[in-house]
Amino acid sequence: MPAQTIAEVIAALDAIIADAIAQRSRLGFFAVLYREVTVQVQAGIASNRFEDGARMERLDVMFANRYLEAYENFQQGMPASACWEAAFKAAPAWRPLILQHLLFGMNAHINLDLGIAAAQTAPGMALPALEKDFKEINSILSSLLDQVQAKIGKLSPWLAWLDFVGKRLDEAVFNFSLKIARREAWKVAERFAALTPEDHAQAISVLDGKVAKLAQKILSPGWLFSGVAFLIKLRESDDVPRIIEVLRA
Questions:
Q1: DSSP string of 151-171, one letter each residue
Q2: 0.90 exceeded by pTM
Q3: CA 9 from chain center: how many Å?
Q4: Is there a domain that residue 1 lies in?
């Protein structure tokens, strides 16, 4: 059953994290990050950070349910969005870095799910009123990614050795720019808000295909950076329960 409240979303994420620890599954990495985002949104609603707290809870729950549904479908062997399947199927692989596993989830959830959830929360002419609160969610995502990248440094000591002339590591190496993703998510919301519900399925399918291609670029960023990532991986912790504990500390 889909979550109805933020509290139910957090409970569902806790269950995913607990299962990931028990199964030593890297699927828990993104779940930890996303739980923290959800907790921060919940706190923001309580502190009146958003213009419309009730609307923000609806958006947060609708946003989360897209991930939770994809996760549940994948676990049951049912079809999920192509971009989420790419993220989930990468979990057993040794080679991707912790950062890559996080970016797989962020790619699917921001580039596909966020804009769709926003348009469904505030369809048609209601969407412009959501923009300020939408940007607040993006601010939370950005600040938390910076914090998580610092935590990854404790698990992946060679990660900090890289200097890409001021470019973010995730953007420089793995073809993922959070700034661009945030901007594009709002454009997705604007496009979907103008569509009829009958047109959503086809539009989602097209967008999903594009986002799945981005997932492949995160997985295979080119021969040079793939080589660099391999060297980093040699010194990175592969103790999944410990990684999850550090990420959620």
A1: HHHHH-GGGGG---TT--HHH
A2: yes
A3: 15
A4: no
